[in-house]
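Morning F.,

Quick status update on the modeling queue. The single chain you submitted on Monday has been processed. Sequence for confirmation:
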Amino acid sequence: MAGITLCGLYFAMQYFGKDIVNYFLLVYIAVGGVTGVRSIMEAIFGNKFAAYDKDKLIDINIKMIGLEIEATMFDFMCLFISLCQMGLYVYSKNWVYNNILCVIFCIHAL
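Structure tokens below.
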């Protein structure tokens, strides 16, 4: 799977260019960072956001391909925080924001 991903990135860079692929990866990291932000917020604040985590705003289930997407208001709040963080990084290109993004993405991966 990793080899297919690297080949796909290579061909995407050849076809779209390095800058477009870089922004695509930044958006991917921002969306993937939602679970990292969620984990951090739940660890720090506990159940204070439980009221926002009850009702599903998006519930997509396609059994044929095994796709299941669920999102609550708390997920959208975490997405907003993650996108703000990514916007700060794109605007400033500061190493501090880069390291924060890496930590959030590592938490997501774990």
